[in-house]
């Protein structure tokens, strides 16, 4: 066993960054792709994944110091079987490690072919066998229930995740899946994790990426980006997941809500901030389609022209992700009504499969208890976490004053969304939240 | 018998018919070290004594028949047929194909071994060469059994007797018999009856059941029977052939009904085509612990594995459907499974064709089967008499029927009787495999004027909007 250094990988947009937090410590055993540090650049915070499985021997930089890309940040002993690769750790920090192969690399369990008529082309049926999915149990997302590749992959992923209790914290599977398993087990579509999982996540960092989602597969997933201007992400070992944050001063928004509240009440609807927030998000999404999209294993980005917004909420049974369908087509009143109902039923654990499966996910304020939370992205290209609205100090006209602010944090898959787009999206959402009357311009 | 050193191979394939040779080529393409053992001719039944020679004869006799029946088109001819020349031509076709198969196997890197393979244990076969040569031992990691089938004999009718023909004998005949009794009204019996009827032979079909090709339904058999009768074929249903005797001129074939009523038919030869039985007696399956069914076929799972995991069985020896393209598909699946790929026999439809006049072809479910499977079937139909192209060929008997699920529109099955039905079924089969809908088929532009337009029209008819038929 040799002790090898690990250097700061390509950050995508800058040559250096501040190492804000170590997520591991010396002596800790880590798995491949496990986030080891948070590094902050000008406008984003990124998590650096472990190059392979092993044991951390020494942290070489202190929190708060600025680190150049390529500088050594820690030393680690790679696991025996990963030794060979660890020699290349610098060049290929996320090279496949045999210590902990991705579940999909293992031969999938053999599925028996059902006699039932299956509506899926031969290549999709073969893919199902490859991934160990019983295709006869899938309800396809196409007309008439025809099954496509995405449906199969969605079920395969959710099954993997449900089966794999060992791999890191896994708060929940984001929606954005169209396929559900007919018998309802291990389905991403329900959006609700089981109890044991939700317990595992009650630690301090509930929303760190799972290390399992498509985005977190290290060098493999980012290589060969499907879209232009993803050079940064393309280089091996580049960060595989990026967060952009900002804070909106939402005094106008809260005023607006207060003004509308009695009118909503007259309709028997309780108006929270959430419908207004969703309107702002949908508006911004409409202008940046790559954020309302999914990306598959081949790095192909599929945008959606429908806006189904998943709301990640904490319930007693863990996290649920009910979905507001076609949020762009609904009035604020209607959204408020629907959200109230969805959240009630999410709380009661009564969501149906049709009520899950969004195109973009928003983590609702209060679901997290942490201002800047990051969702695992899975197949979705982006998700937005909203913090709680609180009085916080802000600088206005050269003076520090207390204002109601709302922190937000956007997670993106760098294969689909580059940092400029991500930053522009956040800026836009902030713009709408700070002067919500702008939303009137696009009211339909 | 078995000599010292065994040759080693990753995969041994026994039998080089359309199952075995396809499996061997696919395995070689996957870089497996593969040995293909064949005791007879490369290409198996299909290329040597089955599909290919029978289709050669069908085409040739069609030409003769058409030429002498085209007065309506202004053509008068009285073609003279030299059966032994036709036979030679057919042999040339067969040789070309079987030679090609052998070359392909070699070029892909399969090792070819001539001889009869039998299992010594579950990892060894012995190959007995032809003329008392020493046998060769081959140690294998995996095996694919593809030994095919042979014609069933009817008691009292030994193929070794000169006037008693198997399909193989019929396809090797050099003289046209004046009178021929055909025992069995299945697809082989009907195809060959048609061939000889078109050559001018008086054909008498003796069939135990009360219809020919009963599995295709009366809408189909009605058309086939009436055309056959036009050709002079005589049907005797509900009778089983019991014996044959020499007569002054030719032979007499006796038959018996269930109630013991007997009939006799004077003929020059009797063709027995009552089905085919799997060939396993050459193999010593027990030595490898491979189980068989009561029928003698080798049962397999959806990966074509026998009860012994690393030994696969494909084609006729593995049971129904005993068709060449099924054998080939199973061969591909078995080879890929051996290569560690996620292959399986998961096809949604294995089409079947009968090359009678007119042809029959089916794929997928009938309306009744669809209903049983829980669908709400709709059936669209296009009769060929409404097809411009069919009219120009002079063959307007028959129809295209397409079965779909009313709610989703998914194509579930098809049944075609008519000219080129064997070709036309391919489109329906593709629609079934892909999970295509009636609308998909109907919206696809079909070349005009072609018979294939009838498939599109049938799909439109199922949707209640065919152009060239009334939508009732
Ligand atoms: C007259 C006729 C017409 C037909 N027409 C059609 C048609 O139009 N369409 C269609 O799809 N099908 C047709 N068939 C059926 C088709 O021929 C068979 O389904 C097909 O040949 C089966 O292929 P197979 O590879 O399983 O076996 P086969 O083709 O029978 O090949 C098996 C091979 O294994 C060899 N063998 C056997 N035992 C051993 C041993 N112990 N060691 C070494 N070699 C051995 C045999 O010599 C043979 O070459 C027809 C059959 C007949 C008889």
UniProtKB/TrEMBL annotation, chain A:
Its EC number is 2.3.1.-. Residues 119-156 form the Peripheral subunit-binding (PSBD) domain. Residues 79-103 have a biased composition (Acidic residues). Keywords: Acyltransferase, Lipoyl, Transferase. Its cofactor is (R)-lipoate. Signal peptide: none annotated. It holds the Pfam family 2-oxoacid_dh. InterPro entries: 2-oxoA_DH_lipoyl-BS (IPR003016), 2-oxoacid_DH_actylTfrase (IPR001078), 2-oxoacid_DH_E2_comp (IPR050743), Biotin_lipoyl (IPR000089), CAT-like_dom_sf (IPR023213), E3-bd_dom_sf (IPR036625), PSBD (IPR004167), Single_hybrid_motif (IPR011053). GO terms for molecular function: acyltransferase activity. Residues 1-77 form the Lipoyl-binding domain. Residues 76-228 are annotated as: Disordered. It comes from the Archaea. Belongs to the 2-oxoacid dehydrogenase family. This is Dihydrolipoamide acetyltransferase family protein. It comes from Halohasta litorea.
From TrEMBL, chain B:
The keyword Cytoplasm does not apply. Residues 10-331 form the FAD/NAD(P)-binding domain. Binds 1 FAD per subunit. Its cofactor is FAD. Residues 350-459 form the Pyridine nucleotide-disulphide oxidoreductase dimerisation domain. Its EC number is 1.8.1.4. It comes from the Archaea. InterPro entries: Class-I_Pyr_Nuc-Dis_Oxidored, FAD/NAD-bd_sf, FAD/NAD-binding_dom, FAD/NAD-linked_Rdtase_dimer_sf, Lipoamide_DH, Pyr_nuc-diS_OxRdtase, Pyr_nucl-diS_OxRdtase_dimer, Pyr_OxRdtase_I_AS. Keywords: Disulfide bond, FAD, Flavoprotein, NAD, Oxidoreductase, Redox-active center. It is an enzyme of class 1 (oxidoreductase). The active site is a redox-active disulfide bond. This is Dihydrolipoyl dehydrogenase. The lineage of its organism: Archaea, Methanobacteriati, Methanobacteriota, Stenosarchaea group, Halobacteria.
């Amino acid at each position: 066993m040799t002790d090898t250094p690990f250097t700061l990988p390509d950050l995508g947009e800058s040559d250096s960054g501040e190492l804000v937090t170590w997520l591991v410590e010396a002596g800790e055993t880590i798995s491949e792709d496990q986030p080891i540090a948070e590094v902050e650049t000008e406008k984003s915070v990124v998590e650096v994944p472990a190059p392979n499985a092993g044991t951390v021997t020494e942290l070489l930089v202190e929190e708060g110091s600025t680190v150049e890309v390529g500088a050594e940040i820690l030393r680690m002993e790679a696991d025996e079987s990963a030794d060979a690769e660890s020699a290349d750790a610098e060049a290929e920090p996320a090279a496949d490690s045999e210590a902990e192969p991705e579940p999909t690399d293992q031969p999938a369990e053999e599925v028996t072919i059902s006699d039932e008529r299956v509506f899926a082309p031969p290549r999709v049926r073969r893919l199902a066998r490859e991934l160990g999915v019983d295709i006869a149990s899938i309800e396809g997302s196409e007309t008439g229930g025809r099954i496509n590749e995405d449906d199969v992959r969605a079920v395969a992923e959710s099954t993997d995740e449900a089966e794999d209790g060992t791999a890191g914290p896994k708060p929940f599977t984001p929606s954005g899946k169209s396929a559900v398993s007919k018998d309802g087990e291990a389905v991403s579509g329900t959006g609700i994790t089981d109890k044991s999982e939700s317990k595992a996540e009650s630690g301090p960092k509930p929303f760190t990426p799972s290390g399992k989602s498509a985005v977190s597969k290290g060098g493999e997933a980012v290589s060969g980006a499907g879209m232009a201007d993803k050079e940064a992400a393309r280089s091996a070992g580049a960060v595989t997941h990026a967060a952009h944050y900002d804070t909106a001063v939402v005094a106008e928004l809260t005023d607006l809500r207060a003004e509308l509240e009695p009118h909503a009440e007259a309709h028997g609807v309780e108006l929270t901030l959430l419908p207004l927030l969703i309107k702002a998000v949908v508006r911004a999404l409409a202008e940046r389609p790559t954020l309302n999209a999914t990306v598959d294993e081949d790095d192909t980005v599929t945008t959606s022209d429908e806006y189904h917004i998943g709301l990640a909420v904490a319930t007693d049974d863990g996290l649920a992700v009910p979905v507001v369908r076609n949020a762009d087509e609904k009035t604020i009143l209607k959204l408020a009504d629907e959200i109230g109902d969805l959240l009630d039923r999410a709380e009661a654990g009564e969501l149906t499969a049709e009520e899950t499966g969004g195109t973009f996910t928003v983590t609702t304020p209060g679901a997290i208890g942490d201002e800047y939370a990051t969702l695992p992205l899975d197949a979705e290209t982006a998700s937005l976490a909203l913090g709680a609205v609180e009085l916080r100090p802000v600088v206005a006209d050269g003076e520090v004053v207390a204002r109601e602010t709302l922190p937000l944090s956007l997670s993106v898959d760098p294969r689909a969304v580059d940092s400029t787009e991500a930053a522009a999206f956040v800026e836009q959402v902030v713009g709408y939240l700070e002067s919500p009357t702008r939303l009137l311009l696009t009211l339909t | 018998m078995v000599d010292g050193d065994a040759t080693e191979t990753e995969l041994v394939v026994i039998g080089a018919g359309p199952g075995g040779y396809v499996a061997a080529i696919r395995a070689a393409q996957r870089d497996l070290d593969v040995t293909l053992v064949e005791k007879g001719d490369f290409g198996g039944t299909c290329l040597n004594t089955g599909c290919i020679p029978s289709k050669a004869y069908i085409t040739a006799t069609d030409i003769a028949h058409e030429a002498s029946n085209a007065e309506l088109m202004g053509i008068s001819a009285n073609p003279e047929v030299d059966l032994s020349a036709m036979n030679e031509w057919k042999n040339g076709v067969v040789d070309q194909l079987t030679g090609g198969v052998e070359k392909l196997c070699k070029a892909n890197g399969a090792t070819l071994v001539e001889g009869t393979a039998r299992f010594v244990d579950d990892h060894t076969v012995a190959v007995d060469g032809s003329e008392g040569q020493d046998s060769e031992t081959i140690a294998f990691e995996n095996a694919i059994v593809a030994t095919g089938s042979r014609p069933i004999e009817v008691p009292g009718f030994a193929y070794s007797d000169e006037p008693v023909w198997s399909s193989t004998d019929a396809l090797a005949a050099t003289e046209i018999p004046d009178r021929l009794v055909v025992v069995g009204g299945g697809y082989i019996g009907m195809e060959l009856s048609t061939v000889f009827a078109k050559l001018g032979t008086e054909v008498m079909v003796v069939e135990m059941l009360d219809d020919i090709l009963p599995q295709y339904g009366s809408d189909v058999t009605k058309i086939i029977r009436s055309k056959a009768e036009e050709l002079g074929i005589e049907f005797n249903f509900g009778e089983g052939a019991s014996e044959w005797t020499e007569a002054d001129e030719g032979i007499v074939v006796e038959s018996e009904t269930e109630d013991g009523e007997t009939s006799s038919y004077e003929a020059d030869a009797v063709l027995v085509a009552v089905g085919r039985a799997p060939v396993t007696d050459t193999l010593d399956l027990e030595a490898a612990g491979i189980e068989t069914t009561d029928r003698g076929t080798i049962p397999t799972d959806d990966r074509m594995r026998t009860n012994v995991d690393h030994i696969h069985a494909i084609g006729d020896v593995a049971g129904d459907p005993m068709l060449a393209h099924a054998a080939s598909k199973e061969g591909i699946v078995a080879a890929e499974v051996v290569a560690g790929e996620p292959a399986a026999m998961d096809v949604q439809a294995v089409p079947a064709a009968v090359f009678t006049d007119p042809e029959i072809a089916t794929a997928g479910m009938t309306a009744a089967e669809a209903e049983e499977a829980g669908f709400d079937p709709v059936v669209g139909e296009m009769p060929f008499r409404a097809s411009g192209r069919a009219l120009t060929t002079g063959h307007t008997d028959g129809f295209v029927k397409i079965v779909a699920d009313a709610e989703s529109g998914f194509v579930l099955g098809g049944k075609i009787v008519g000219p080129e039905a064997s070709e036309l079924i391919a489109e329906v089969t593709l629609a079934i495999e892909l999970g295509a809908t009636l609308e998909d088929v109907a919206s696809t532009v079909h070349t005009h004027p072609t018979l294939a337009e009838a498939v599109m029209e049938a799909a439109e008819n199922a949707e209640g909007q065919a152009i060239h038929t009334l939508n009732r």
